[in-house]
Amino acid sequence: MARPLLLDLALTHILGRKRQTIVSVLGVALGVGFFIAMAALMQGFQGYFVDTVINASPHITVRDQFREPAVQPVAAAFRGGAVLLHGLKPRDEIRGIRKAGTIVSALSEWPGLSVAPSLDGPVILRYGSADKSAVAIGIVPEREVRVTQLEDDMVEGHLTDLASAANGIVMGLGLASKLGAKMGDSLNAISPAGVILRVKVVGLFRTGIVSLDEGQAYILLKKAQILQSRANVINQIRIRLMEVDAAREVAARIEALYGYRTESWQEANEGVFGVFRIQNAIMYSTVGAIMIVAAFGIYNIISTVVYEKSRDIAILKSIGLTEADIRRTFLMQGLMIGMIGAVLGWIIGFGLTSLLGSIRFDVGGMVRNDRFFLAWSLSHYWIGGMFSLVASAVAAWIPARRAAAANPVDIIRGAA
Amino acid sequence: MTAAVVEARGIGRVLPGPVPVTLVEGIDLSIGEGEFVAITGPSGSGKSSLLYLLGLLDRPTSGTVILEGRDTAEADAAELAALRLSKLGFVFQFHFLLPEFTVLGNVMIPMRKLGGSPEAELRTRAQALLEDLGLGDQAAKLPSQLSGGQRQRVAIARALANRPRVILADEPTGNLDTKSAQTVFDIFARLARETGTTVITVTHDEGLAAQTSRRVNLVDGRLVTPGVR
Ligand SMILES: Nc1ncnc2c1ncn2[C@@H]1O[C@H](COP(=O)(O)OP(=O)(O)OP(=O)(O)O)[C@@H](O)[C@H]1O
Ligand SMILES: [Mg+2]
Fold first, then answer.
1. Parallel, antiparallel or unpaired: strands A216-220 and A168-172
2. Nearest Cβ partner of B93 from A16, A322, A416?
3. Which structural domain, as residue segments, surrounds residue B68?
4. Which residues of A fall within a CB distance of 8 Å from B118?
5. Entry pTM
6. CA geometry: angle at A388 spanning A387 and A390, to 5°?
7. ipTM for this prediction
């Protein structure tokens, strides 16, 4: 079996310092292992969250608002005028999307879009002695089912039951349990407009997003318009796309066309994505810190070998090995430690991830669940491996360069 | 007179620094094929320095070394390394064998670096070399299991591994007893006589120096015997 000379030299060097080598390998392995487990955990959670958000809410929401406050007539009339008027009372307009029907039918013609109008407004739900405020969303069930996955989240009843009962209401499981209401119970819905509507629970849903499960209820659009005293008004157009990732562009196009504030799911969850970015930054810094410690271990062992083997290096150079040969010999040692560490780290990472996957618990918070969401991805293994190779190459490069640059004459003179 | 194998033309070596140190200066020296040359001189006279320059291990600050007619002044570090590998062999006072490699493994290092032949063939050649130096039964041992004289002979075998044109030895017998020292010089003499290898050795030992074919005497970094005949 013929091993290349340089590999042979590199092996004798690191095998000569077994304990230090093992510690360095373990350092790298832990770094890679933790990275893989953390990446699986974070990406799993983030992926789950995004999926839930995408499924539970519309991809695009058109609201009865404008990004810029409306220009008051007086300002329009005296544009750039020298007179400044204070205390103007804005015209009290009936809020809502104008010509909503036209917009809905126009958007329905766009390819890949499902469109549902709705009117939401605050209500107090009263059942016995319990009062809970909630957002009552008036919907057209047969349109709504094409826009959100709410129907899939129903644990009892169906959205279409809204139409069958006289005054049906579908609410989140959390809201129902806070009220103490069950299927078939009748309760009172009271709006800020002072309208009281007696409604009957015909369905319960559970999205997993706590704020929705505890704060939302659905009724028919017509009933919502009565409840809020806003006949024929809608204040939201909810849209679902075939191409989820196109939401930003489509939203921008709709807003440009109709002027109403149009929000994509990405924009609506900007804050959460910011949190994700911070999470990822924390993960990469933690792993980076572990890798730096591991790299110091590698730097240390190779520096020691370079120092200890300075005579060998000198004689090898006198024999005719080049500086590049010497550099390669020590670089190889770092890479071997990095590679073995990476493979061991893959095993550790796999084990840790499996362990995390087997843990069961019960937590609330932004989302409610009983286990970790884990993203199994080969890319984590590649990134972890690359991380360790780069770290070990850099750590080995510094002493390797020093070894290559050493003058053999000085060492041979000194050793005599 | 045959063409010179190693030729120094006015070489000098000055160590830079606040107080520059002159190791050797103005050396003109021409050594031919199969010559067995002793470099002698008092301690600190520059013998080692001259040997490193002739062996392309160090670069002169003035003048140039010509190896087999090739001027090495313009050669870069990698070219010098290649010349050392294929044309030169060093033996030092200390053996410098790699402790983790067997005797055979040490002898094979220069062969493996040069390459060109299958590993098995290199192994056979290294073994033959060891037999020739009376070390045939020591091939599988580690250097630490040998005597001082045996180690130095292994170092010579390693220097001979790639059939060099020139062997450069710096007090190769400095650490050896008289008998082992004589063995080393016998090997050198035989090499020069039988294979035409040029041997240049630094020595303090008058008796050994007397066995060479030519003596070059250094004092204070300068030749006091004519270097070119
Ligand atoms: N790195 C250095 N810095 C300063 N002076 C040096 C250095 N290297 C060598 N010298 C000096 O250069 C001179 C020549 O050294 P060299 O080793 O060539 O002598 P030498 O003839 O081989 O001596 P020895 O017989 O003791 O081995 C000596 O005076 C030595 O002290
Ligand atoms: Mg000397």
1. antiparallel
2. A416
3. 4-228
4. 2
5. 0.75
6. 70
7. 0.94
